[in-house]
């Protein structure tokens, strides 16, 4: 304890750094209980490659993913007496065909779980850069409420098709939204869609990650931000921890602020995935915010103070 179910490495993701074994070794050094590996599902259209992938083909991406699963299995076996490793993947949803590809890959590689994440709105990348984000805003004629609504509609489609065990950065659509401009989630038509998605995820037993990478992006809160996290908790939703690490240096990134965030919102119990009797299940860890992991890593949480969250 604790855990993360959202981890990448530069070995298999061009915008991350280092190798996958480095991520595992750092997690072990920090006394993590479970490490969920979740490299990105490969994209299958040339137009969806990112600039740093200009020397790759879509076939290359599929080979990289296959290599990832092979390496993850090796590491799982090598370090099985020191940490539990689950082998998963982070989803994409660019077109409807993407969802079918995810299903096929999950079956082909017998993945332990999926992190259900939406990185595109109508085939346009959402979290790549401020410029790309602004292009989506422009596509909606500057109507940010319509843009946010579309995000939550596509997120629901993803959840309905894939039923991911972990909901990744639930409100990623806020990533480049200026704080000076009214948050569309205060509008009824947008908030109702987010609430609908929360209800659906809870209905099939998903776990929402509380993702600390949001602080690296300059946001006030982790994903999901406090308005949505409070709603999830009030409705009995289950939450877990994720650092969304992009290399060994990011393992447990901002977990000090994450602990303070959880304490401020009154979160004491967490859920995590673990293999039990040959099947990956969601287990409850009561009083998780009091676990000795935090003190062992010098993380006190309360000293951060809500004013800095």
Characterize the structure shown.
The C terminus is likely disordered. Helix 5 runs parallel beside helix 6. This protein starts with a strand and ends in a 13-residue tail after the last helix. Strands 1-3-4-5-8-9-10 form a seven-stranded parallel sheet. The chain has a two-stranded parallel ribbon with strand order 2-11. A two-stranded antiparallel ribbon has the order 6-7. Strand 3, helix 2 and strand 4 form a beta-alpha-beta unit. The chain has one domain: Metal-dependent hydrolases (TIM Barrel). The protein is of the alpha/beta class and 309 residues long. It is globular and about 55 Å long. The longest helix is centred in the N-terminal third of the chain and has 21 residues. It contains nine helices and 13 strands. Keywords: Amino-acid biosynthesis, Histidine biosynthesis, Hydrolase. Pathway: Amino-acid biosynthesis; L-histidine biosynthesis; L-histidine from 5-phospho-alpha-D-ribose 1-diphosphate: step 8/9. Its EC number is 3.1.3.15. It is an enzyme of class 3 (hydrolase). One of its GO terms (molecular function) is histidinol-phosphatase activity.
Mean pLDDT equals: 95
Distance between the termini: 23 Å
The CATH topology name reads TIM Barrel
Profile the largest sheet. Answer: 7 strands, parallel
CATH architecture: Alpha-Beta Barrel
In helices, the fraction of residues equals: 25-40%
Please give the count of helices: 9
The count of strands amounts to: 13
CATH superfamily membership, which one? Answer: Metal-dependent hydrolases
Catalytic activity: L-histidinol phosphate + H2O = L-histidinol + phosphate
InterPro entries: Histidinol_P_phosphatase_HisJ, PHP_dom, Pol/histidinol_Pase-like
EC number: 3.1.3.15
Family: Belongs to the PHP hydrolase family. HisK subfamily.
């Amino acid at each position: 304890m604790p855990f993360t179910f959202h981890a990448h490495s530069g070995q298999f993701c061009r915008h991350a750094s280092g190798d996958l074994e480095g991520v595992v070794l750092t997690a072990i050094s920090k006394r993590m209980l479970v490490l969920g590996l979740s490299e990105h599902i490969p994209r299958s259209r040339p137009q969806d490659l990112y600039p740093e992938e200009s020397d790759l083909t879509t076939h290359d991406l599929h080979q990289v993913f296959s290599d990832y699963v092979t390496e993850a299995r090796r590491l799982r076996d090598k370090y099985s007496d020191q940490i539990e490793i689950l082998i998963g993947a982070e989803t994409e949803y660019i077109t409807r065909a993407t969802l079918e590809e995810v299903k096929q890959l999950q079956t082909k590689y017998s993945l332990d779980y999926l992190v259900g994440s939406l990185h595109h709105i109508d085939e346009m990348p959402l979290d790549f850069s401020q410029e790309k984000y602004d292009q989506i805003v422009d596509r909606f004629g500057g109507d940010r409420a319509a843009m946010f609504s579309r995000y939550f509609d596509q997120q629901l489609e993803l959840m309905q098709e894939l039923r991911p065990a972990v909901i990744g950065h639930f409100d990623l659509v806020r990533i480049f939204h200026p704080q000076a401009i009214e948050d569309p989630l205060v509008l009824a038509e947008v908030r109702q869609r987010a609430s609908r998605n929360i209800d659906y995820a809870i209905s099939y037993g998903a776990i929402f990650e509380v993702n600390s990478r949001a602080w690296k992006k300059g946001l006030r809160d982790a994903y999901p931000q406090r308005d949505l996290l409070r709603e999830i908790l009030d409705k009995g939703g289950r939450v877990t921890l994720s650092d969304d690490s992009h290399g060994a240096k990011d393992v447990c990134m901002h977990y000090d602020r994450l602990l303070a965030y959880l304490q401020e919102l009154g979160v004491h119990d967490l859920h995590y995935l673990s293999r039990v009797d040959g099947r990956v299940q969601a287990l409850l860890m009561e009083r998780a915010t009091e676990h000795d992991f935090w003190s062992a890593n010098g993380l006190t949480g309360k000293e951060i103070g809500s004013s800095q969250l």
